UniProtKB/TrEMBL annotation:
Superkingdom as given in the UniProt entry: Bacteria
Domain DUF4937 residues, every copy: 2-92
Descriptive protein name: YdbC family protein
One Pfam family per UniProt: DUF4937
InterPro entries for this protein: Dimeric_a/b-barrel, DUF4937
């Protein structure tokens, strides 16, 4: 199982635009090898907002195929790039318990509209 953890900083003025764009990743539900994606806002005191998104893939091969063939069209179409101050991506090859820990982080206020499930 491959897990992709995405952490983005977004200024407060663009929070709504980021959230709207994040809710437009529904196309993932039809991608071979995709399992689930969820995310939300990390609780912060000051400064830019931090969004954290976790996506789960069957394996590295499926993820790489998605990145090479489908990712950019979704990302470009939803115009999310324009509202992100910084972006950090980490990939993990882990088991289900690790995924559950990431998807149930008490420091993140999960947004239901950001959840995508395999169709």
């Amino acid at each position: 199982m491959l897990i992709k953890r995405i952490v983005c900083e977004v200024d407060t003025a663009n929070a709504e635009a980021f959230a709207k764009a994040q809710s437009e990743w529904e196309a993932l539900s039809h991608v071979n090898g995709f399992i689930k994606q969820a995310g939300g806002w990390r609780k912060t005191i000051d400064g830019p907002l931090t969004a954290e998104i976790i996506s789960v893939w069957e394996n590295r091969e499926a993820y790489d195929h998605f990145m090479e063939n489908e990712h950019d069209s979704i990302y470009d179409d939803n115009e999310q790039k324009a509202v992100i101050l910084s972006l950090e991506v980490t990939l993990y090859e882990e088991d289900k318990s690790f995924v559950q820990d990431l998807l149930h982080n008490p420091d993140i206020q999960y947004e239901p509209d950001w959840t995508v499930l395999k169709a």
